[in-house]
Here is the input.
Amino acid sequence: MKTKTKEKIRNSIIYIVLIVIAYFMLFPFTYMLTTSLKTPTDTFRSPPKLLPRDQKMETIEGFTGELPIFYLTAEGETEKKEFALIEKNIRIGVYADPDSPDITYERFSKEVTPKGGYFDDQEKITYQGEDVGLWNVDVNGQIIPMIQISQTAVGKFVNPENQTEVIYANLRLSEPVEKLSAHPENYRDVFELQGLYKSLTNTTLVTILVVCGQLITSIMGGYAFARLKFPGRDKLFLLYLGTYMIPFVVLIIPLYQVMQALSWVNTATALVIPWIFSVYGTFLMRQFFMTIPLEIEEAAHIDGASRWLMLRKIFIPAIMPGIATLATFSFLYAWNSFLWPLIIIKIGSENSVLTLALSQLQGRSSDKLNLILSGAAVTILPPVLVFIAMQKYYLKSIMSSGVKG
Here is the structure.
């Protein structure tokens, strides 16, 4: 009994730790998706909030259009109520008698007039070492010259349920009433702004061609190195495998010169042809082919099966986990490729891919983080979905290779 209790506690701790780790791993993606559905104002709010929110708007009888709603506390009350903003940027000044500066009066700026006239004609006095103007302030029907201590802008708010209840409050310090919302039109805007439709089509086409090309060449190359016997096979394979250690930066200039000689610069062909041959893919396929027992191949050969028939009917179905793994890796690389398209494709070209379009979007919409993250979501979601769909084959590949190894 104690053993089962200890095991439950241990499993609970493991689950808690894994949930915490998963939360921190998934939070950036969650924040990206939620921010892509926000407005620019909501994006840069402080403190930030995870879910998109909009200020509540209401139509009130007697007023035109929808009015923003705020939480305010009426004078003499402690409970906050909802008020609608009907007018903003109303100037209010704080005035005081120079002889009694501790007693102040708040008045609307439109209710006071400068003593002596406007601008240079206004009468002034020296107060605390500075020249300040005098203002005519009505106090209980008596006009008293006062100085202006401070001035601020407020908004006029009305209770939608009782329009006789009016409050003047600082708009910046007022708490808006918010509701959960979403703005999927951000995706439409980012597609129209950056022309992502063409870039998405180009990226999809290039990725499909690269994945198909790598699968074909890797399967054929891996089968040849694993099953066909010819002079120098192992040495040729080691030489081919050694090229995998050459850094890509070393190949950039000669590869670009080859593309230029073939007139493939700024074309989709340059994004496909150099990458349909994969050293890693050939090595991976060879290792999977070598795990298939030789007796199966010999039995098929006795039955009169050709090399192509054996490859198609026996070997390929047997290494489907490996093929799925290679397809996943090829897809992720081709879809997320940035450096080579940046070099070979001109900025703004009709052959541009998503990674280049997203890079341009960061410059054109640097003040609109919601649009940038909408573009990032469009770029990231397809590889995530492909990885999730192919995950079981990938795990099966790891488990099978571990057992057979």
Q: What stands out?
A: The chain has three domains: 2-52, 53-180, 187-404. Residues 33 and 72 are 33 Å apart (CA to CA). The mean pLDDT is 88.
